[in-house]
Every structure is written in structure tokens, then in C-alpha cells.
Amino acid sequence: MAKIPQSEYLSTNNLSCVFNNTSATYKFYWFKSLLQMRNEEGAVRMSVWDLVIRMVANAWYTIHYFRLSFGTMDSLHDIVTELQWLTGLLMDSSREDVIKCLTGNLENKKVKRLLHTLTLNVPYRFLSPWINYRSDEDVS
Hints:
Low-confidence stretches: none
Distance between the termini: 29 Å
Number of strands: 0
């Protein structure tokens, strides 16, 4: 069980619960993207598209450089490799270049379809400790 330090400003119990069940990497990359957007851009409101693009950008180097697959339950590897093929981005593209390219290609139906896959369950599963989400039927 993950232990998040207590804070007098923020209840961390629910955040700690997010990482109790981590059979896939999406929670980590979603959270990292949230923190980056808040820290780097001061964003308070965030687009789901911006978050999933950052998820892909954050996983890009790890997947290409280390040739990691995150397991059969995790679709991020396949999404990243297919986006690399579709966009022509180099395998060693920077996070910023990946973000810029994918943001510029959101009108491309194939790119958007791949990114859309990450919008289906990732936000709900990450937020499950706050919204009492237990199964897909709870949010349908």
C-alpha cells in the first residue's frame, strides 16, 4: 500500500488510494502529466487531450529507448509505437517535440482515435477514490 505524506493543506488519503492497484502504467503517467501541467504552465483547468498527449510524450522515451512493454493489460506501448509510425516522429524525439506534434495532429482521425483510447477509462480510474467508481458500469 502506497504511503503519501500527510499535508495540512490537502487530504492525501484519496491520492494514496489511487496507487493501491497499479496493474497498468496509466495512473503514473496521468498523474505525472497533471503535475507537469500544474507546475510548468500553472494550469488549474486542463484539457483531457492535453493530458493524454503528455502521457504519450512522457512514455515516449522509455518505450523507445528501453524498448519496454508495460504488459498485456497496458495499451500505452502500442499507442506510442503506432503514433510514432503515423506521425513520423523520431524515436528519440524530445517530450516537447512529441507534445507539439501530437497537438498539431489532433485533426488527424487516426491520431485522435489512438489518443481517444486513453480518454475512455484513464480519467475515471484515476479519479475512482474520489467518485466511488468501482466498475465501467458506474460511469456509463
